[in-house]
């Protein structure tokens, strides 16, 4: 596990990051929506490297505002129907190796009721909240997929467009880390 930022160091870094966000042309419009937990999560994730943290925040905003604006504007936490269905869960305690453990239960998703975009948006909201809480204390994530109840109707929802969307939204290339 990576070291957690000490409070006194974290507050100095957090202040510096907030100043950089205010001065950054891509991020200054979003300064009010970045809460401290989210920013500390990004700092920890980038091991206190300010340049990498700012670049990662720029990418975070780009994906949600420019790359997929229709997708991200359509699905808001208040409108996503699957957010309270426990499709995605994060366990409270890490595994014996210190990794964060996430569980995806396919039986909680009925494709005839909720479209796959709703499931993707739910995953995105869970991951965003994970940055604020769980993911900032470690550098590894283990996902367990419970495929009980997986049917052909689930598989048919993965069109080429959706597959590309999933790869672009959730897969991070090594050089971007």
UniProtKB/TrEMBL annotation:
Record-annotated CRAL-TRIO domain positions: 87-170
GO CC annotations, alphabetized: membrane
InterPro entries assigned: CRAL-TRIO_dom, CRAL-TRIO_dom_sf, CRAL/TRIO_N_dom_sf
GO MF annotation terms: phosphatidylinositol bisphosphate binding
SUPFAM superfamilies associated with the record: CRAL/TRIO domain, CRAL/TRIO N-terminal domain
Domain of life: Eukaryota
Name under which the protein is recorded: Alpha-tocopherol transfer protein-like
């Amino acid at each position: 596990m990576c070291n957690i930022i000490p409070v006194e160091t974290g507050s100095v870094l957090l202040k510096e990051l907030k100043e950089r966000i205010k001065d950054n042309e891509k991020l200054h419009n979003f300064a009010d929506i970045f809460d401290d937990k989210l920013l500390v999560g990004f700092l920890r994730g980038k091991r206190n490297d300010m340049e990498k943290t700012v670049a990662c925040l720029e990418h975070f905003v780009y994906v949600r505002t420019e790359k997929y604006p229709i997708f991200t504007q359509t699905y808001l936490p208040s409108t996503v129907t699957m957010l309270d269905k426990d499709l995605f869960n994060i366990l409270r305690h890490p595994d014996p190796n210190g990794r964060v453990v996430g569980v995806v239960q396919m039986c909680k998703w009925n494709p005839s009721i909720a479209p796959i975009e709703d499931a993707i948006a739910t995953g995105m909201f869970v991951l965003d909240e994970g940055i604020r809480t769980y993911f900032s204390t470690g550098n590894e994530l283990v996902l367990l997929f419970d495929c009980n109840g997986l049917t052909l109707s689930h598989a048919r929802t993965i069109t080429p467009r959706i597959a590309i969307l999933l790869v672009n939204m959730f897969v991070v290339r090594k050089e971007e880390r």
